[in-house]
Each structure stands twice: as structure tokens, then as C-alpha cells.
Amino acid sequence: MTFNPTERIALFIDGANLYSAARSLNIDIDYKKLLDEFGKRGALLRAYYYTAIVEDQEYSPIRPLVDWLDYNGFTMVTKPARRYIDSSTGQARTKGNMDVEIAVDMLEMAPRLDHAVLFSGDGDFRSLVGAVQRKGVRVTVVSTVRSQPPMAADELRRQADTFVDLADLITVIGRPRLQSPPRFLQEPDERSRIGTGGDED
């Protein structure tokens, strides 16, 4: 990763997307190391973490992680996840797309940034990255193409100023997955718990 020590940096972490990418590489993210690493690379103004939370559950496995991040330097952006019945399977599913929240925050922060780091491989962010770049902000995308299937959309990789494969950061911000990871380290599975796609408002 190439950073200038004088750059004003913000991190925009799509929690469910990053969790899926890390799981595909069989690693856990050490969020303290992540914050420390990017804090060394410039003036880190904000580290946003986005996730939807199922609020009607007696116990939410994501809640302890959200609380820990909130107390340890991250700016948490959450919203209630919505439950619905999948018409094709009849199964109850959950959706909580955070694309709009990420886009609004990144565009609002752009005038005060030199470098935005987006932790997501979602191709829907290509237009957002382009809009932020037109405001003079460099954008680094962090995801992975070393999983099967690749987690990073080709159009997003092409749009970014720099693409960093999460696999290359394992020694810096990751650790091998535990056999039974503590529940507060677990983010809902993006595919089974949090829906993706353009129909989620």
C-alpha cells in the first residue's frame, strides 16, 4: 500500500463484505491491528464500520463486536436488518444493505480527505469511487480475488486508484481463524444473513 504520511485518511468498512472476504481466506480480522496499521500511514480522521443488526433476536452475535469497535476508535453506523420471506424458497431471510450509508458518508467526507480506503469488493461501489475521485480523493479498495469465487468485482478494481488484496494483509491485520472464534468476532454471513443486491432499500 502506498500512503503519504501527510495524507488525511478515512476507512469505510462494509462489515458483512469484509467478514465474508476474511472467512473465504480462513482468517479473522484483528480490528485493533487494522486501526493501528492505518493510523501509522497518515492522519487517520475516521474509521467507519457499517453493519445491519437483527434487533428482535434474544442474542445478536454481532452486538458484542459492535460494542467493542464503538469503544475502540471506530465510528459505528448501524441500522436494523429487515426480515422477509423468500418467495422462491419460503425461507425466512434477513437483509440489511449498507450501500447508501457508505456512499453518503464517503461523499460528505471527501472534501476533508486525501485518501479513502474502502473495505468492500461490491461492484455497486464503482460509481461512488468515481465520484469521490473526481473530488480529488485517491481511493484504495481492499478485498480479495484469491477466494473462490473472487470477492472483488472487476469493475471496482479497475476504478480504484489502488487495489489491495486482503490476502496480502494477513500478516498485518489478520490472524488464523480459531476453531471456535469468540462470538464477538463473528459478523453475520453476508450471503446467508445479510442480503445483497439492488432491491434492498
Query: End-to-end span in angstroms?
Result: 34 Å
- Oligomer designation: single chain
Can you count the beta strands?
10
Q: Specify the number of helices.
A: 7
User: Share of helix among residues?
Assistant: 25-40%
What is the name of the CATH architecture?
3-Layer(aba) Sandwich
Number of domains: 1
CATH class, named Alpha Beta
Classified in CATH, the superfamily is 5'-nuclease
Order of helices and strands: EHEHEHEEEHEHEHEHE
Query: Main β-sheet: number of strands, strand sense, barrel status?
Result: 6 strands, parallel
Globally, the shape reads globular
> Could you name the ranges where pLDDT drops below 50 across 5 or more consecutive residues?
180-186, 188-201
Give the helix/strand class. alpha/beta
The CATH topology is: Rossmann fold
Would you kindly provide a written description of the structure presented here, covering whatever features stand out?
With 201 residues, this protein is of the alpha/beta class. The protein has one domain (8-185): Rossmann fold. Helices cover 29% and strands 26% of the residues. The protein contains 7 helices and 10 strands. The strands form 3 sheets. It has a 6-stranded parallel β-sheet, sandwiched between helices. The radius of gyration is 16 Å and the shape is globular. It starts with 7 loop residues before the first strand and ends in a 25-residue tail after the last strand.
Topology record:
Layout: E1 8-14, H1 15-24, E2 27-29, H2 31-40, E3 43-53, H3 63-71, E4 75-80, E5 82-85, E6 92-95, H4 99-109, E7 115-119, H5 126-134, E8 138-143, H6 154-159, E9 162-165, H7 170-173, E10 174-176
Parallel strand pairs: 1-3, 1-7, 3-4, 7-8, 8-9
Antiparallel strand pairs: 2-10, 5-6
